[in-house]
Amino acid sequence: MLLGEKVALRPIFRDDLPRFLSFFNDIEVELAGGGDPPTPKTLKEVEKFFDVDADKPDPSKTNFAIEADGKLVGFCGLFEIDETSRTCELGIFIGDKEFWGHGYGRDAVRLLLDYAFRLRNFRRMWLEVHSENERGIRAYKSCGFIEEGRLREHTWLDGRYVDMVLMGVLRDEWRRS
Ligand SMILES: CC(C)(COP(=O)(O)OP(=O)(O)OC[C@H]1O[C@@H](n2cnc3c(N)ncnc32)[C@H](O)[C@@H]1OP(=O)(O)O)[C@@H](O)C(=O)NCCC(=O)NCCS
After folding, report:
1. Ligand 1 atom closest to the CA of 100, numbered from 1
2. For a disulfide at 79, which of 12, 48, 89, 174, Cβ 3.0-4.6 Å?
């Protein structure tokens, strides 16, 4: 369990899945996150996504549930783990819209950076975010991520093409901040 000022990051349990299912079927939440176009999700797909029945955790990722005010509000984690280069992708998804824009995301990202750099010895974290996700971009910048590049008109989102922004932070930069 990782404790921040506003959120706790903890393992994902089977009982969490129905709430995740409702997050994944909320079009506004799906569009905010971008990525694949929204499609109706089933409980089976959510079970597969979180690998809840796997005997061994998938070494390419580490998932956490995000809890705030005693409620499950989303998930975050390390993905695309590259043990050789000591890099990984940071992903975050707050599915409870009541919790958007109040500093919960920033707190979760700070916890994850501390976990990745200090406890897992990663050297670089990176992420992708679509250019219209201002809330996400501002939260990531405030945690030390900088824009490293942009894939222009890369993603079809809600009736138009938007840029995909690549952001990253190195351990030394994180330490200095
Ligand atoms: C992106 C996300 C993790 C950010 O977490 P959050 O708790 O909402 O964000 P925070 O409150 O920590 O920070 C938001 C920042 O955007 C600003 N902001 C808040 N509402 C905003 C809005 N409607 N438009 C633009 N900026 C906004 C805040 O002022 C803050 O900036 P500041 O630090 O410069 O003051 C969360 O909103 C989320 O999960 N959204 C849905 C899924 C998603 O977008 N996932 C990320 C995919 S890359």
Report:
1. 8
2. 89
